[in-house]
Amino acid sequence: MANAFFSDLLATISERGRTLLRRGDSADTKQDADGLIELCGALLSGRGEASGTAMAREVLDLYQDLDAAGRRAFFEALVRDFGPDRERLAKAVETWRAGPSDEDASSLHFASEPRRQELIRRLNRAPGGTGDLVKMRADLLGMMNGHTDLAALDRDMSHLLSSWFNRGFLVLRRIDWSTPANILEKIIRYEAVHEISDWDDLRRRIDPVDRRCYAFFHPAMVDEPLIFVEVALTETIPGAIAPLLAVDRRPVSIERARTAVFYSISNTQRGLGGISFGSFLIKQVVEELRRELPKLDNFVTLSPVPGFMPWIKQDKDLPLSDEDRELLKRLDEPKWFEDADATAQLRGLIEPLAAHYFLKARTPKGRLIDSVARFHLGNGARLERINWLGDLSPKGMRESAGVMVNYLYRLDDIEKNHEAYANDGEVVTSSAVKKLLKGEGRRRLDMRLS
């Protein structure tokens, strides 16, 4: 109620300020990027709170009216014309060199700040400004596409959004069938791992006694889930997704549930890319579940392996014979997994390759290839199990030949596992996965002897 009242009050003040602005400005105000940049300069020049808030709202509205070319021109102008005040910065550098002190260091710090950072702060004061800035950064990321000319602006936006979306501001809420429909509709739309087909499908995922869904929200975007996780309560660690999502499955009674399975984690705001709060989500959900269900022993994921098939198709140095490479071509056949002979042969090839993919394969920069693996291992999970034909959906077959994996979150080991991965790049894994890798080694030895 307090937030709603404050938002309405701020919107009223802003709208009255905008009315005054329209009366004071000429009728032929430019609607292109140049006109928008002029308005940004006026916003930074410093006016009263009401007119400043109104002007910020006007900037954000006019930005929405720009086409793609206009938005790029706007971003380029922010990089080119809204950097640090060079004269002020030069004086601060000279003062620091003449006699360094904590006060001089502070002055140097503030003098080096680009003017666009203050502009972004002022835009954030507009009603709805935070959400609009998140959307603006999504546009920016889409235009960068490997180019570095807009990188300075992205660093500034990322820096500020990281502060505004730090864990202290985020609110964890459980999503259930009583959640407002506008939020439930967004859960359907934003689901990025296992598509939710309709409202009945959504209800099966959040309403039964053995299902949970949690999301992080921000006070400035109260109807926008930032990231959400879907949880299944099971008796044992699952190896396939279909039984968890089956229409006719029988719910597990809470008394028998011993495992919490995080089977889908979806980020919803592209504009918050690179601002990680997924680890906080998992850890807080674990704490919530432990308080509610103290008998839970295992906290695991059932995760996709989205980079596996692209790696197989592109990597020239796979530990494979010509015969193996010929066998891999069967993966391009539709419904190959319905052929018992093909399935048996491919399993003996794919499982060791998957172990190699996680434990040995790396990008040119030395990173794990798989983004999902980087996320969970970086959070302190252990690579527990590789599941053959865990996902038979078209997406699962296309991305990973049906392979899924379990990452185990053992609470006493999370910090140790995280340190091993962060400091040494070590993938903490179970003996079962290590045996698969050893099987690959024996396979290569057999190849050399044959």
Automatic annotation (TrEMBL):
GO biological process entries: fatty acid biosynthetic process
InterPro entries: Malonyl_CoA_deC, Malonyl_CoA_deC_C, Malonyl_CoA_deC_C_sf, MCD_N, MCD_N_sf
Domain Malonyl-CoA decarboxylase N-terminal: 82-165
Every Malonyl-CoA decarboxylase C-terminal domain range: 168-409
Gene Ontology molecular function: any one: malonyl-CoA decarboxylase activity
Record-linked Pfam families: MCD, MCD_N
Organism superkingdom: Bacteria
Protein name (Swiss-Prot/TrEMBL): MCD, Malonyl-CoA decarboxylase MCD
